[in-house]
Structures are given as C-alpha cells and as structure tokens.
Write a structure and sequence with these properties.
The protein is mostly helical. It contains three helices and no strands. It comes from Marchantia polymorpha subsp. ruderalis.
Amino acid sequence: MVSYYTCVSVLLLVCLTIMLLVLPLILPPLPPPPPILMLLPVVIFILLMLIAFVPSSVNTVVVSYI
C-alpha cells in the first residue's frame, strides 16, 4: 500500500498537536474580543450563503468533453 504521509509530515502534525494541547495550559488567558469582531463569522456566513444561492448571470453553460 502506498504511504500518503512522509515521516516529516507526520512529525510536523504530531508537533502541532502537542503544541495545541500544551500551549493553552501555559499561556495566560486572553481577554474576550471586541463585540464587533464577534459578528465577523456571521457576516462571512451570510456572504457565502448569498454567493451560493444568488443566480449567476451566465445564461448557458457549455461543457465539452474532448
């Protein structure tokens, strides 16, 4: 079977996982973000929904398999 991950990539992922588990225990807690920044994910979600459901201006889509 073909290996999709090299030794270096596995080592990098393991180090990243250990850092994500250990650093929150070492670093002091951060203050909460300003309230306006809390709306940013909501705005991004609304924009993505508009992009997904607003019809495009392309009348015909030509697909050729050659």
